[in-house]
Protein backbone atom coordinates (compact mmCIF):
# COMPACT_ATOMS: atom_id res chain seq x y z
CA UNK A 1 0.00 0.00 0.00
CA UNK A 2 1.26 3.50 -0.84
CA UNK A 3 2.86 5.27 2.09
CA UNK A 4 1.10 8.48 1.04
CA UNK A 5 -2.37 6.94 1.15
CA UNK A 6 -3.51 8.30 4.50
CA UNK A 7 -2.40 11.86 3.62
CA UNK A 8 -4.16 11.74 0.25
CA UNK A 9 -7.29 10.26 1.84
CA UNK A 10 -7.23 13.14 4.32
CA UNK A 11 -6.86 15.82 1.63
CA UNK A 12 -9.65 14.39 -0.52
CA UNK A 13 -11.88 13.83 2.54
CA UNK A 14 -11.56 17.48 3.61
CA UNK A 15 -12.11 18.81 0.08
CA UNK A 16 -15.10 16.78 -1.01
CA UNK A 17 -16.89 19.77 -2.50
CA UNK A 18 -14.13 20.55 -5.03
CA UNK A 19 -11.64 19.05 -7.48
CA UNK A 20 -8.05 19.01 -6.26
CA UNK A 21 -5.43 18.93 -8.99
CA UNK A 22 -2.69 16.30 -8.90
CA UNK A 23 -0.21 19.18 -8.97
CA UNK A 24 -1.74 20.80 -5.88
CA UNK A 25 -1.81 17.51 -3.95
CA UNK A 26 1.81 16.83 -4.95
CA UNK A 27 2.90 20.29 -3.79
CA UNK A 28 1.06 20.08 -0.49
CA UNK A 29 2.51 16.71 0.35
CA UNK A 30 5.88 17.43 -1.24
CA UNK A 31 5.77 14.28 -3.35
CA UNK A 32 5.82 13.61 -7.09
CA UNK A 33 2.70 13.80 -9.28
CA UNK A 34 3.34 10.20 -10.28
CA UNK A 35 3.14 9.15 -6.63
CA UNK A 36 -0.18 10.99 -6.33
CA UNK A 37 -1.56 9.37 -9.47
CA UNK A 38 -0.43 5.86 -8.42
CA UNK A 39 -1.93 6.23 -4.96
CA UNK A 40 -5.25 7.48 -6.34
CA UNK A 41 -5.42 4.58 -8.81
CA UNK A 42 -4.77 2.19 -5.93
CA UNK A 43 -7.51 3.81 -3.85
CA UNK A 44 -9.97 3.40 -6.73
CA UNK A 45 -9.17 -0.29 -6.85
CA UNK A 46 -9.86 -0.45 -3.13
CA UNK A 47 -13.39 0.88 -3.57
CA UNK A 48 -13.08 4.67 -3.31
CA UNK A 49 -15.14 6.36 -6.00
CA UNK A 50 -13.00 9.28 -7.16
CA UNK A 51 -13.93 11.44 -10.10
CA UNK A 52 -10.71 12.25 -11.95
CA UNK A 53 -10.90 14.80 -14.77
CA UNK A 54 -7.97 15.92 -16.83
CA UNK A 55 -6.92 19.54 -16.19
CA UNK A 56 -9.35 19.71 -13.28
CA UNK A 57 -8.21 17.14 -10.75
CA UNK A 58 -9.70 14.59 -8.37
CA UNK A 59 -12.87 14.70 -6.29
CA UNK A 60 -13.89 12.09 -3.74
CA UNK A 61 -17.46 10.96 -4.39
CA UNK A 62 -17.87 8.03 -2.07
CA UNK A 63 -16.04 5.75 0.29
CA UNK A 64 -15.38 2.01 0.02
CA UNK A 65 -18.23 -0.22 1.20
CA UNK A 66 -15.88 -1.78 3.73
CA UNK A 67 -14.62 0.15 6.75
CA UNK A 68 -11.41 1.90 5.78
CA UNK A 69 -8.81 2.33 8.53
CA UNK A 70 -7.55 5.68 7.20
CA UNK A 71 -11.03 7.23 7.18
CA UNK A 72 -11.88 5.80 10.58
CA UNK A 73 -8.69 7.37 11.85
CA UNK A 74 -9.76 10.75 10.45
CA UNK A 75 -13.18 10.44 12.06
CA UNK A 76 -11.91 9.24 15.41
CA UNK A 77 -9.13 11.84 15.46
CA UNK A 78 -11.83 14.40 16.30
CA UNK A 79 -12.44 12.42 19.47
CA UNK A 80 -11.28 14.07 22.65
CA UNK A 81 -11.47 10.75 24.49
CA UNK A 82 -10.62 7.75 22.30
CA UNK A 83 -7.07 8.10 21.09
CA UNK A 84 -6.50 4.73 19.50
CA UNK A 85 -8.49 2.56 17.15
CA UNK A 86 -8.13 -0.95 15.77
CA UNK A 87 -9.91 -1.72 12.51
CA UNK A 88 -10.38 -5.28 11.24
CA UNK A 89 -11.94 -6.96 8.24
CA UNK A 90 -13.02 -9.95 10.30
CA UNK A 91 -12.83 -10.98 13.93
CA UNK A 92 -14.75 -13.44 16.07
CA UNK A 93 -16.09 -10.59 18.19
CA UNK A 94 -14.86 -7.02 18.72
CA UNK A 95 -15.66 -7.59 22.38
CA UNK A 96 -13.24 -10.53 22.55
CA UNK A 97 -10.52 -8.51 20.78
CA UNK A 98 -11.08 -5.53 23.11
CA UNK A 99 -10.76 -7.80 26.13
CA UNK A 100 -7.41 -9.07 24.87
CA UNK A 101 -6.12 -5.59 24.11
CA UNK A 102 -7.21 -4.19 27.43
CA UNK A 103 -4.60 -6.35 29.15
CA UNK A 104 -1.76 -4.19 27.87
CA UNK A 105 -3.55 -0.93 27.15
CA UNK A 106 -4.73 1.40 29.86
CA UNK A 107 -5.91 4.21 27.55
CA UNK A 108 -9.37 4.43 26.01
CA UNK A 109 -9.63 2.76 22.59
CA UNK A 110 -12.03 1.53 19.91
CA UNK A 111 -12.24 -1.80 18.09
CA UNK A 112 -14.28 -1.96 14.86
CA UNK A 113 -14.71 -4.88 12.51
CA UNK A 114 -16.43 -5.26 9.17
CA UNK A 115 -17.60 -8.78 10.02
CA UNK A 116 -17.91 -10.69 13.27
CA UNK A 117 -17.97 -14.45 12.89
CA UNK A 118 -19.11 -14.97 16.49
CA UNK A 119 -20.70 -11.67 17.53
CA UNK A 120 -22.31 -12.08 20.89
CA UNK A 121 -25.17 -10.65 22.88
CA UNK A 122 -25.82 -10.96 26.60
CA UNK A 123 -25.74 -14.40 28.21
CA UNK A 124 -23.75 -15.70 25.23
CA UNK A 125 -26.57 -15.23 22.77
CA UNK A 126 -25.60 -14.65 19.14
CA UNK A 127 -25.42 -11.24 17.50
CA UNK A 128 -25.88 -11.34 13.74
CA UNK A 129 -23.09 -9.15 12.29
CA UNK A 130 -22.82 -9.23 8.52
CA UNK A 131 -20.29 -7.27 6.49
CA UNK A 132 -20.90 -3.75 5.14
CA UNK A 133 -24.36 -3.51 6.70
CA UNK A 134 -23.82 -2.34 10.23
CA UNK A 135 -21.55 -0.93 12.88
CA UNK A 136 -20.00 -3.57 15.13
CA UNK A 137 -17.73 -1.93 17.63
CA UNK A 138 -16.38 -2.14 21.15
CA UNK A 139 -15.48 0.97 23.09
CA UNK A 140 -13.07 0.73 25.98
CA UNK A 141 -13.47 3.46 28.61
CA UNK A 142 -10.63 3.80 31.05
CA UNK A 143 -11.35 5.68 34.28
CA UNK A 144 -11.60 4.81 37.93
CA UNK A 145 -15.34 4.67 38.62
CA UNK A 146 -17.01 3.78 41.92
CA UNK A 147 -18.83 0.46 41.71
CA UNK A 148 -22.25 1.84 42.66
CA UNK A 149 -22.35 4.03 39.54
CA UNK A 150 -22.04 1.27 36.95
CA UNK A 151 -25.73 0.28 37.06
CA UNK A 152 -26.59 3.54 35.28
CA UNK A 153 -23.92 3.38 32.53
CA UNK A 154 -26.23 1.65 30.02
CA UNK A 155 -28.90 4.27 30.53
CA UNK A 156 -26.58 7.13 29.57
CA UNK A 157 -25.19 5.24 26.58
CA UNK A 158 -28.56 4.12 25.25
CA UNK A 159 -29.79 7.67 25.27
CA UNK A 160 -26.70 8.69 23.26
CA UNK A 161 -27.35 5.98 20.65
CA UNK A 162 -31.03 6.87 20.32
CA UNK A 163 -30.23 10.58 20.03
CA UNK A 164 -27.70 9.83 17.26
CA UNK A 165 -30.11 7.69 15.25
CA UNK A 166 -32.78 10.39 15.52
CA UNK A 167 -30.47 13.23 14.54
CA UNK A 168 -28.70 11.44 11.69
CA UNK A 169 -31.69 9.69 10.12
CA UNK A 170 -34.86 11.22 11.53
CA UNK A 171 -36.07 7.72 12.49
CA UNK A 172 -37.89 7.66 15.83
CA UNK A 173 -35.40 5.56 17.73
CA UNK A 174 -36.57 4.53 21.19
CA UNK A 175 -34.73 3.08 24.13
CA UNK A 176 -35.80 -0.29 25.40
CA UNK A 177 -34.49 -0.60 28.93
CA UNK A 178 -31.82 -1.72 29.71
CA UNK A 179 -29.68 -2.10 26.58
CA UNK A 180 -31.58 -2.04 23.29
CA UNK A 181 -32.67 0.54 20.78
CA UNK A 182 -35.85 -0.04 18.79
CA UNK A 183 -37.54 1.68 15.88
CA UNK A 184 -41.28 1.02 15.49
CA UNK A 185 -40.99 -1.94 17.88
CA UNK A 186 -38.19 -3.60 15.86
CA UNK A 187 -34.71 -3.97 17.33
CA UNK A 188 -32.00 -2.06 15.48
CA UNK A 189 -29.30 -1.94 18.14
CA UNK A 190 -28.15 -3.87 21.16
CA UNK A 191 -25.24 -3.37 23.43
CA UNK A 192 -23.32 -5.28 25.98
CA UNK A 193 -21.36 -3.79 28.88
CA UNK A 194 -18.56 -5.66 30.60
CA UNK A 195 -16.21 -4.34 33.26
CA UNK A 196 -12.79 -4.92 34.75
CA UNK A 197 -11.38 -3.53 37.96
CA UNK A 198 -10.83 -4.37 41.60
CA UNK A 199 -13.00 -4.76 44.70
CA UNK A 200 -13.84 -1.07 45.18
CA UNK A 201 -13.75 0.47 41.75
CA UNK A 202 -14.11 -0.17 38.08
CA UNK A 203 -11.09 0.63 35.95
CA UNK A 204 -12.28 -0.24 32.48
CA UNK A 205 -15.67 -0.53 30.85
CA UNK A 206 -15.81 -2.54 27.64
CA UNK A 207 -18.99 -1.61 25.84
CA UNK A 208 -19.85 -3.57 22.69
CA UNK A 209 -22.37 -1.88 20.43
CA UNK A 210 -24.08 -3.41 17.41
CA UNK A 211 -26.19 -1.16 15.18
CA UNK A 212 -27.99 -2.31 12.03
CA UNK A 213 -27.46 0.50 9.55
CA UNK A 214 -28.08 -0.58 5.96
CA UNK A 215 -29.73 -4.02 6.07
CA UNK A 216 -32.76 -4.87 4.06
CA UNK A 217 -35.22 -7.17 5.79
CA UNK A 218 -34.08 -10.14 3.69
CA UNK A 219 -30.50 -9.66 4.92
CA UNK A 220 -31.49 -10.85 8.39
CA UNK A 221 -31.62 -14.57 9.14
CA UNK A 222 -35.16 -15.98 9.17
CA UNK A 223 -35.40 -16.10 12.95
CA UNK A 224 -34.73 -12.35 13.21
CA UNK A 225 -36.93 -11.12 10.37
CA UNK A 226 -39.97 -10.51 12.55
CA UNK A 227 -38.03 -8.61 15.21
CA UNK A 228 -34.94 -6.92 13.71
CA UNK A 229 -34.65 -3.84 11.54
CA UNK A 230 -32.06 -1.37 10.28
CA UNK A 231 -32.11 2.40 10.01
CA UNK A 232 -32.23 2.16 6.21
CA UNK A 233 -35.14 -0.27 6.36
CA UNK A 234 -37.08 2.28 8.40
CA UNK A 235 -36.17 5.47 6.51
CA UNK A 236 -35.44 4.25 2.97
CA UNK A 237 -32.17 6.19 3.04
CA UNK A 238 -28.69 4.65 3.01
CA UNK A 239 -26.76 5.63 6.11
CA UNK A 240 -23.29 7.13 5.56
CA UNK A 241 -21.35 4.95 7.97
CA UNK A 242 -18.57 7.45 8.61
CA UNK A 243 -20.88 10.39 9.28
CA UNK A 244 -22.90 8.09 11.57
CA UNK A 245 -19.80 6.94 13.44
CA UNK A 246 -18.64 10.54 13.81
CA UNK A 247 -21.96 11.68 15.33
CA UNK A 248 -22.26 8.58 17.49
CA UNK A 249 -18.83 9.03 19.03
CA UNK A 250 -19.48 12.64 19.91
CA UNK A 251 -22.88 11.79 21.46
CA UNK A 252 -21.35 8.89 23.39
CA UNK A 253 -18.45 10.98 24.65
CA UNK A 254 -20.86 13.64 25.82
CA UNK A 255 -23.06 11.02 27.53
CA UNK A 256 -20.03 9.41 29.14
CA UNK A 257 -18.87 12.74 30.61
CA UNK A 258 -22.40 13.21 31.92
CA UNK A 259 -22.28 9.71 33.41
CA UNK A 260 -19.01 10.55 35.19
CA UNK A 261 -20.20 13.86 36.58
CA UNK A 262 -23.97 13.50 37.02
CA UNK A 263 -26.49 11.17 38.53
CA UNK A 264 -29.08 9.33 36.47
CA UNK A 265 -31.74 11.50 38.09
CA UNK A 266 -30.40 14.43 36.02
CA UNK A 267 -31.25 12.72 32.72
CA UNK A 268 -34.16 10.60 33.92
CA UNK A 269 -36.88 12.82 32.47
CA UNK A 270 -35.29 12.74 29.00
CA UNK A 271 -34.58 8.99 29.26
CA UNK A 272 -38.21 8.30 30.10
CA UNK A 273 -39.34 10.33 27.10
CA UNK A 274 -37.14 8.24 24.80
CA UNK A 275 -38.30 4.97 26.30
CA UNK A 276 -40.80 2.63 24.59
CA UNK A 277 -42.01 0.53 27.52
CA UNK A 278 -44.51 2.78 29.30
CA UNK A 279 -48.26 2.25 29.29
CA UNK A 280 -48.14 -1.27 27.90
CA UNK A 281 -48.51 -4.64 29.48
CA UNK A 282 -45.30 -6.60 28.79
CA UNK A 283 -43.55 -9.74 29.94
CA UNK A 284 -40.39 -9.25 32.03
CA UNK A 285 -37.96 -12.14 32.54
CA UNK A 286 -34.93 -12.05 34.81
CA UNK A 287 -33.32 -15.43 35.41
CA UNK A 288 -36.19 -17.72 36.39
CA UNK A 289 -38.49 -14.86 37.43
CA UNK A 290 -41.28 -13.99 34.97
CA UNK A 291 -43.63 -11.08 35.53
CA UNK A 292 -46.35 -9.67 33.31
CA UNK A 293 -47.17 -6.07 34.04
CA UNK A 294 -46.55 -2.41 33.36
CA UNK A 295 -43.34 -0.49 33.94
CA UNK A 296 -44.09 2.44 36.21
CA UNK A 297 -40.71 4.01 36.97
CA UNK A 298 -36.92 3.76 36.92
CA UNK A 299 -35.10 4.26 40.20
CA UNK A 300 -32.06 6.51 40.45
CA UNK A 301 -29.79 3.45 40.53
CA UNK A 302 -31.22 2.28 37.19
CA UNK A 303 -33.53 -0.45 38.47
CA UNK A 304 -36.86 -0.77 36.68
CA UNK A 305 -40.08 -0.78 38.69
CA UNK A 306 -42.89 -2.96 37.31
CA UNK A 307 -46.43 -3.32 38.67
CA UNK A 308 -47.81 -6.77 37.90
CA UNK A 309 -51.43 -7.55 37.03
CA UNK A 310 -52.28 -8.20 40.69
CA UNK A 311 -50.84 -4.81 41.71
CA UNK A 312 -47.58 -6.07 43.31
CA UNK A 313 -44.38 -4.12 42.70
CA UNK A 314 -41.22 -5.79 41.28
CA UNK A 315 -37.73 -4.38 40.80
CA UNK A 316 -35.49 -5.53 37.93
CA UNK A 317 -31.78 -4.98 37.38
CA UNK A 318 -31.53 -6.31 33.84
CA UNK A 319 -34.62 -8.13 32.57
CA UNK A 320 -35.46 -9.30 29.06
CA UNK A 321 -38.63 -7.60 27.92
CA UNK A 322 -40.87 -9.10 25.25
CA UNK A 323 -42.25 -6.43 22.98
C1 LIG B 1 -27.59 -7.58 22.78
O1 LIG B 1 -27.74 -8.75 23.48
O2 LIG B 1 -28.46 -6.99 22.22
C2 LIG B 1 -26.13 -7.09 22.72
C3 LIG B 1 -25.58 -7.10 21.34
C4 LIG B 1 -24.17 -6.55 21.30
C5 LIG B 1 -23.54 -6.71 19.95
C6 LIG B 1 -22.22 -6.00 19.87
S1 LIG B 1 -21.60 -5.94 18.25
C7 LIG B 1 -20.07 -5.37 18.80
C8 LIG B 1 -19.76 -6.14 20.08
N1 LIG B 1 -19.11 -7.39 19.79
C9 LIG B 1 -19.87 -8.44 20.15
O3 LIG B 1 -19.54 -9.64 20.01
N2 LIG B 1 -21.02 -8.00 20.68
C10 LIG B 1 -21.09 -6.56 20.72
P1 LIG B 1 -29.14 -9.38 23.87
O4 LIG B 1 -29.96 -8.36 24.58
O5 LIG B 1 -28.81 -10.64 24.56
O6 LIG B 1 -29.85 -9.66 22.49
C11 LIG B 1 -29.44 -10.72 21.67
C12 LIG B 1 -30.65 -11.11 20.81
O7 LIG B 1 -30.89 -10.09 19.82
C13 LIG B 1 -30.43 -12.39 20.01
O8 LIG B 1 -30.77 -13.51 20.76
C14 LIG B 1 -31.37 -12.18 18.83
O9 LIG B 1 -32.70 -12.50 19.17
C15 LIG B 1 -31.33 -10.68 18.61
N3 LIG B 1 -30.37 -10.30 17.55
C16 LIG B 1 -29.22 -10.92 17.15
N4 LIG B 1 -28.61 -10.24 16.19
C17 LIG B 1 -29.39 -9.16 15.93
C18 LIG B 1 -29.30 -8.06 15.02
N5 LIG B 1 -28.28 -7.90 14.19
N6 LIG B 1 -30.30 -7.15 15.06
C19 LIG B 1 -31.34 -7.24 15.91
N7 LIG B 1 -31.48 -8.25 16.77
C20 LIG B 1 -30.52 -9.19 16.80
Give the key terms.
single chain, 323 residues, alpha+beta, Arc Repressor Mutant, subunit A, BirA Bifunctional Protein, domain 2, SH3 type barrels, seven-stranded mixed sheet, five-stranded antiparallel sheet, 9 helices, binds biotinyl-5-AMP
Instruction: Specify Rg, calculated over alpha carbons.
Output: 22 Å
Query: What count of helical segments does DSSP give?
Result: 9
Distance between the termini: 49 Å
- Overall mean pLDDT score? 95
What is the architecture of the largest domain at the second tier of CATH?
Answer: 2-Layer Sandwich
**Major β-sheet profile:** 7 strands, mixed
CATH topology of the largest domain: BirA Bifunctional Protein, domain 2
Amino acid sequence: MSKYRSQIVELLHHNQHQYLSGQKIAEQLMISRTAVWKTIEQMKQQGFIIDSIQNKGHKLKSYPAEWDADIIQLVTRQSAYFKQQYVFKEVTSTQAVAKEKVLDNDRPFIVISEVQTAGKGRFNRQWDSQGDKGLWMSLVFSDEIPLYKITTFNLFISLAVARTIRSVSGAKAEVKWPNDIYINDYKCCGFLTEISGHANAIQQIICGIGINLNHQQADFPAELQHKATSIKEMTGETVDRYAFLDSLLSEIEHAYQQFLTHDFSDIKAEYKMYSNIWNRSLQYTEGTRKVTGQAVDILDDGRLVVRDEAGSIHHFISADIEI
